[in-house]
Design a protein that fits this description.
Elements: E1 10-12, H1 15-34, H2 40-66, E2 68-70, H3 75-84, H4 95-100, H5 107-127
Length: 129
C-alpha cells in the first residue's frame, strides 16, 4: 500500500505573530542554557529546548521575511522555507529522535544543538530590527 505524501502547507504569519514566536524562541533558548550538561536527562531536555528554540526562531524569520511559516508534517518543507528566507538550517530533522525518542543524547550533541539554537535566535533577532 502506498504511503500518503505529507502535505506541504504554510500559514500566514504577520509581524506580531513572528515577534511572539521570537519571544518563545528566546525563552526556550534560555531554558536550554540553564541546564548543566552531562547527565542524560539534562542533555535531552537541553537538546529538546534548543530544538524548540530553533523551530520558533525559524518561524519568526520566515514570518518576518516571507510573511508565512511552515505548518506541514514534513520537516524538510520547513527547512526549505527557511532557506528561502536565507538561513541554512540543518537541525530540524533531529527533532523527532531527540524530543520523542527514548535514547539518551550526549552532552556534546546537546551542546551543538544549543549553539545552533543560539545562532538562529540571534539571526531572528537581527531580522526584527
Amino acid at each position: 500500500m502506498k504511503q500518503p505524501v505529507p502535505k506541504r502547507r504554510t500559514v500566514r504569519l504577520d509581524v506580531a505573530g513572528a515577534r511572539a514566536r521570537l519571544k518563545e524562541a528566546q525563552l526556550h533558548l534560555a531554558a536550554a542554557e540553564l541546564l548543566d550538561l552531562g547527565a542524560p536527562a539534562e542533555n535531552k531536555v537541553a537538546g529538546s529546548n534548543a530544538i524548540l528554540a530553533g523551530t520558533a526562531a525559524a518561524d519568526a524569520i520566515c514570518g518576518l521575511v516571507l510573511g508565512k511559516r511552515s505548518a506541514g508534517d514534513d520537516h524538510a518543507d520547513a527547512e526549505g522555507l527557511l532557506r528561502r528566507a536565507t538561513h541554512p538550517s540543518t537541525k530540524a530533522a533531529g527533532k523527532t529522535p531527540v524530543q520523542y525518542g527514548t535514547d539518551a543524547i550526549s552532552a556534546s550533541d546537546a551542546s551543538d544543538l544549543v549553539a545552533w539554537a543560539l545562532d538562529i535566535v540571534r539571526e531572528a533577532e537581527a531580522r526584527d530590527r
